[in-house]
Amino acid sequence: MNKVDSTLKSVLEDWPEASYNLLATIWSNNGKLKAEHNRALCELLECNLGQLMTALLPLAESFSLASTSGFKVGAVAMGNTVSNDGMADLFLGANIEFPNLPLDTTIHAEQCVSVVTLQHGQRISSLAVSVTPCGYCRQFLYEFSDAQPLPVSIGKNSVTDLNALLPKAFGPIDMGIAETSTLNLSINLNELSDTTSAFEDLAKTAAKSAYSPYSNNNAGCVISLTNGNSYLGRYLENAAYNPCINPFAAAICVARVSEIDFDFSAVEQCTFVESQENISLQSQIKMLLNACQPKAVFNTATLGR
Ligand SMILES: [Zn+2]
What we know:
With about 300 residues, the chain is an alpha+beta fold. It has two domains: about 25-170, Cytidine Deaminase, domain 2; about 180-300, Cytidine Deaminase, domain 2, CATH 3.40.140.10. Helices cover about 35% and strands about 20% of the residues. It has 13 helices and ten strands. It has helices at about 5-10, 20-25, 25-30, 35-45, 50-55, 55-60, 110-120, 135-145, 160-165, 190, 200-210, 245-260, 280-290; strands spanning about 30-35, 75-80, 90-95, 125-130, 150-155, 160, 220-225, 230-235, 265-275, 295-300. A six-stranded mixed β-sheet has the order 1-3-2-4-5-6. Strands 8-7-9-10 form a four-stranded mixed β-sheet, with helices on both faces. α7 runs parallel beside α8 and α7 (about 110-120) packs across α12 (about 245-260). The longest helix is centred in the C-terminal third of the chain and has 12 residues, at about 245-260. The chain is globular. The structure holds zinc ion. Zinc ion (ZN) binds near residues 108, 110, 133, 134 and 136.
């Protein structure tokens, strides 16, 4: 049995083996399960899309890298491109803790799945999480979800929505930003990472698609791994500032859901680009890269206006 099948068998014990070929596409599609595959999975499991999302939570949890807490959290998001029969793409994510670094560098599962969904050019229209979202994630989701209110199912039985979880929310409008219209989803960053463009060009493309209405610092990066694969990440800001996702963390999220054997030490280089408008993320990115792999090469460039 190959690595993919044995992984699936260990986390989705009751699933028929006929589902494995469909599920294996998660890794090759950068954390995405296409609508057509979800339709087939629903038929196979005799369930609806919402039930499929909940059933996929153990697989999402298996993406967790929780070296400090040992506490695995999984999240499954439904994209906002929905076909006539109600089928949609699904995206998976999990919590990721940077080894040996402070707790506040942690990427929460809801952030990870948001990054993965946005990176595929979609917004979240429904979410399933394995445990109750923390306050930080409620704040983060508020700015990036598509549905109003965002349906949220927690574990196996609890269904609620983001308005109930975050009443009287603080958001972009309180900071003088009318809406998240500056969020550019016209580019599928995962498709770009397959190109042979120079790292700096890729990082610049990622930086141009950053969502940074509070600092105006457009930042992006490309990381490459020892196996030759590379992943892009864009900077995502939040009205409450702290739940921001830096571009390196975003690239790590996508690498994690794309590589069945992902390991931090496999990061070989990072090319980071920012417009250095008001703030700079450079020292933060350098610190994160150094924690993953001290030997990794760090390249930087400035994004011209
Ligand atoms: Zn959280």
